[in-house]
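TA notes, week 10

Several of you asked for a full example with nothing omitted. So below is the full record: structure tokens for the whole chain, then the designed sequence directly under it. When grading your own attempts, check the secondary structure regions first.
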């Protein structure tokens, strides 16, 4: 059940749209998994204190929006409700399975996901080749993750965290980094570079450190020549469509903050509020900065509650100790500064595992 649960969260292909909410395969599975795992859920007071405020404020903000008849601003409420269900299901599943078995299941799932994405990329090589001949933004390919290949590269890089204490780390990291470059995912490249730095900093032998540095440099050189556009995109920040739209959204968000209700505009309402106040229409469903998104959606109380969760992650991340769950959730926090709209079930699933296993220590392999 654990392996299938995580795999299903990575298959974000919509099945049907119901009242604007996309029903995906994992929605059915996790409703069942929740009722199976609920008997194992045990949350200590310290952890409950860290997470309860955010859950409560999301619900209060939603109720406030309903009372104000801002129903059109409630687009992410079902997503948050489901994300919290995933969180509590994760708590139960983690209690029912030892951490070593959890990690092995996540690693098996990671290999299956990587194989599927690599296979998809090879099958799409004609489109990739056409894109590389005249690159702009990202290649237009079939994707497994909502948000397209950019988010696909992000989540694949985050999955590399599950191999931090294995000899397979650099192999998985290399393939995920190459895919980030092929997809011209700036976030995927930055996360990959940061993850490589963490791994090198945590190496416990000079030989491993030397080999890691050599591999990282070699992969960087090879991938640069395979798609130099993915690196030149960093120099285009502020001068190309994607970053210009972000700057305009953030400018509009500052205006929206002037009339911010106590509990915000409602879950998923940030971009709508920015559009209404700035008079501009954006082809996005979020403001591409989750801290700002939380502030607009749930007000200052919501932001403080989210920062409490961030502090919990930072305290228990164990980045230099190779903590798989801490690394994964920390990478999410980094990426959320420029993407993610919130209520990502994958994040809340791994966060639940971190809560249950934060004191567990596993040796390097």
């Amino acid at each position: 059940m654990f392996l299938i649960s995580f795999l299903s969260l990575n298959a974000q292909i919509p099945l049907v749209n119901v009242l604007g909410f996309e029903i995906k395969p994992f929605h059915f599975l996790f409703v069942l998994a929740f009722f199976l795992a609920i008997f194992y859920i045990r949350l200590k007071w310290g952890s409950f204190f860290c997470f309860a405020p955010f859950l409560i404020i999301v619900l209060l903000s939603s109720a406030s929006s309903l009372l104000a008849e801002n129903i059109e601003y409630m687009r992410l409420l079902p997503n948050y409700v489901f994300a919290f269900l995933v969180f509590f299901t994760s708590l139960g599943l983690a209690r029912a399975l030892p951490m070593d078995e959890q990690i092995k299941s996540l690693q098996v799932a990671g290999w299956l996901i990587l194989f599927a994405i690599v296979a998809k990329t090879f099958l799409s090589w004609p489109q990739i080749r056409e894109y590389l001949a005249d690159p702009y933004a990202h290649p237009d390919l079939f994707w497994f993750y909502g948000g397209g290949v950019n988010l696909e590269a992000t989540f694949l890089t985050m999955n590399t965290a599950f191999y931090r204490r294995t000899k397979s780390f650099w192999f998985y990291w290399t393939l995920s980094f190459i895919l980030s470059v092929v997809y011209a995912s700036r976030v995927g490249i930055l996360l990959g570079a940061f993850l490589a730095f963490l791994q090198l900093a945590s190496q416990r032998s000079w030989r491993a450190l030397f080999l890691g540095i050599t591999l990282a440099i070699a992969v960087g050189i090879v991938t640069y020549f395979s798609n130099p556009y993915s690196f030149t995109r960093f120099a285009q920040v502020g001068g190309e469509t994607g970053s210009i739209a972000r700057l305009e959204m953030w400018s509009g968000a500052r205006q929206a903050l002037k009339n911010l209700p106590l509990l915000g505009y409602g879950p998923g309402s940030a971009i709508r509020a920015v559009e209404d106040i700035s008079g501009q229409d954006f082809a996005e469903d979020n403001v591409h900065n989750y801290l700002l998104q939380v502030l607009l959606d749930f007000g200052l109380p919501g932001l403080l509650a989210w920062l409490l969760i961030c502090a919990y992650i930072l305290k228990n991340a164990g980045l230099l100790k190779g903590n798989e769950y801490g690394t994964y959730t920390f990478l999410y926090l980094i990426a959320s500064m420029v993407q993610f709209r919130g209520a990502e079930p994958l994040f809340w699933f791994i966060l639940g595992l971190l809560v249950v296993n934060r004191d567990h220590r596993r040796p390097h392999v």
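Confidence is low (pLDDT under 50) at residues 359-365. Use that as a sanity check on your answer.
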